[in-house]
Amino acid sequence: xxxxxxxxxxxIGEAWHRIAPYIRRTPAIPSPSLSRAAGxxxxxKLETLQPTGSxxxxxxxxxxxxxxxxxxxxxVVTASTGNHGxxxxxxxxxxxxxxxxxxxxxxxxxxxxxxxxxGCRVQVAGASQAEALEVAAALASDxxxxxxxxxxxxxxxxxxxxxxxxxxxxAPETRNxxxxxxxxxxxxxxxxxVKSTSPSTRVIGVSMSRSAAMKASLDAGHPVSxxxxxxxxxxxxxxxxxxxxxxxxxxxxxxDEIALVEEEEIWKAMLWAYRTHGLVLEGGGAVGIAALLAxxxxxxxxxxxxxxxxxxxxxxxxxxxxxMESPPSxxxxxxxxx
Length: 338
Ligand SMILES: *Cc1c(COP(=O)(O)O)cnc(C)c1O
Fold this sequence. Notes:
alpha/beta, six-stranded mixed sheet, four-stranded parallel sheet, disordered C terminus, binds pyridoxal-5'-phosphate
């Protein structure tokens, strides 16, 4: 197989036009309260408003709309039960394209049923998420469906990069962009888009301190695999792939700083977002706010924080609701999260 060129800024522009009818151009709302806490002007870009509740619909739409009719008839395959799987299922269904989701034997029955009710063919394969992804990649053979990788794909990266185009267009004064970081598709795309118009704008990634795979890989100088630990930021879990093709190098060259946040800081950020802006954020969507509130990042100048998703687990939503009814700053959150 010939190596494909990496994503270019032009790819991001093309992706934006392609996906525009299927996604929302999201607002970046000012946060006076966070601006006071951080000492810089902060805006929150609300990817929570996307159909399916996370930015992942941008990459999924970019990839699937890029397929010609022949490939579309063969369908698409992926291996996520989370935000990426939801986004792929949504776009495939909208375009009447068959979709298969490979899931590991660990995935609870309820999640399988939810995928099936969205019209997905579900294939149980492998003992872990990584193994399910391998099976999905194997299914996507020459005559089979196309793999829609959750992050390590040049077209998916271009789709996520459309967020960076919107930031550059609507808030050109932005000096820092703070981005939740897992496999790195989101920050690679945004970094490429933002730096191509404003090279001095700082691109800052935030991961949870529990099993931060990209950070560990950068420190090691090559992709490394970590044992997954439970986290409130479940959408940031998972490895970057030992055979990573694009995002490791892109993060190496495009990202200026990476901050890590603790579980309690993520929970506080989720509570803060709800109390202050009536904003429901999942853990992975709240890590940027968490890093600012905990002063793990000290941005100089106007800053845009990507609030990447709102699909929190029912048990976390209930805990959030209970917390709202009790006086602030009790010790309850810690107990509930153990
Ligand atoms: C997938 C996801 C991320 C991380 O994106 P990567 O491209 O894997 O770095 C961040 N936030 C949410 C809500 C996600 O679903």
